Amino acid sequence: MTAEYELDPDSDYSVQIAESLRNSIVDGRLLVDQRLPSEAELSDLFSVSRPTIREALKRLAAQNLIRTRRGATGGAFVNRQSYKQAYRQQITTATLLLGMNDVTFETAVEARYTLERSCVELSAQRRKPDHLATMRAEIHRQGQPGLSDESFCDSDVAFHRALVDGAGNPILSFQLAGAVEAMQPLMNMITFTARNRAEIIKFHTTIANALEAGDSGLADQMLVALSQYTVSLADKIRQSKAQRKSAPPE
User: What is the CATH number of the domain that holds 67?
Assistant: First the structure.
């Protein structure tokens, strides 16, 4: 194994080393269950101190990319990643991208619902009773009086995640983690003052009924309608803000 690039003296060495080792894992140059070079070997390889190497390895362990074992046969070993383990990282990445880039609300809504619609046909065929039970439970929860906006948002996310997971495809579930669990809360944060919970519950109930009946067409139509409704809420909020700004002072 060789370092991918020379270390930048103006940046944190441990971060750069962790990134180099991570790239070696992702690219397959370091294989699952393979032992990484020792701290001493990595220290020589990157021309840094062993404490710096330890800090880099801690960063990789925090990402669940490696595990450490003590003893004569110990060391740092490459972990086997699962979709479930990578799920949170996907959500974090999507949240950061949305927060750090100039993405319009309409663009986010379009992407979010287009991605979810890709799961509908499979979900109508493969959804398990547990997926439907989760969707029904969340619909019931959403109708509870006194439910906070934050709890309603959490329930909204859980409902749509059950739809996606119902497709029975772990790659789709992983890929849509950001769409459902990052985009949905951001949309709710923007539209919660204008949305009608009863209206959303109607959409969710029709979607759940359609999936239970194996009617992917109707479920898809409802997601399109829900997308349009969400955009209309943002328009309503913008218009309301514009009217308040143009209104003469009292």
Answer: 1.10.10.10
Domain span holding position 39: 13-78
Burial bucket for residue 218 (CB in 10 Å: 0-12, 13-18, 19+): middle
What count of residues does the chain have?
250
Long-range contacts of 229-235 (CB under 8 A, 24+ apart): 229/199, 229/200, 229/203, 230/109, 230/113, 230/187, 230/191, 231/105, 231/106, 231/109, 233/190, 233/191, 233/194, 233/195, 234/105, 234/106, 234/109, 234/190, 234/191
In total, how many domains does the chain have? 2
22 and 98, same domain (yes or no): no
Domain assignment present for 248: no
Cβ proximity of 138 and 97 under 8 Å: no
Whether 142 maps to a domain, the answer reads yes
46 and 91, same structural domain?
Answer: no
The reply to whether 58 and 171 lie within a common domain is: no
Residue 225 inside a domain? The answer is yes
User: Is the domain of 153 the same as that of 66?
Assistant: no
**Local confidence pLDDT in tens for the 250 residues of the chain:** 544 458 888 889 999 999 999 888 878 888 888 899 999 999 999 999 999 999 999 999 888 889 888 877 788 999 877 666 666 667 676 666 666 667 788 888 898 899 999 999 999 999 999 999 999 999 999 999 999 998 998 999 899 999 999 999 988 888 887 777 777 777 777 778 788 999 999 999 999 999 999 999 999 999 999 999 999 988 888 887 777 777 676 6
User: Interhelix angle for 184-191 vs 105-126, to 10°?
Assistant: 130
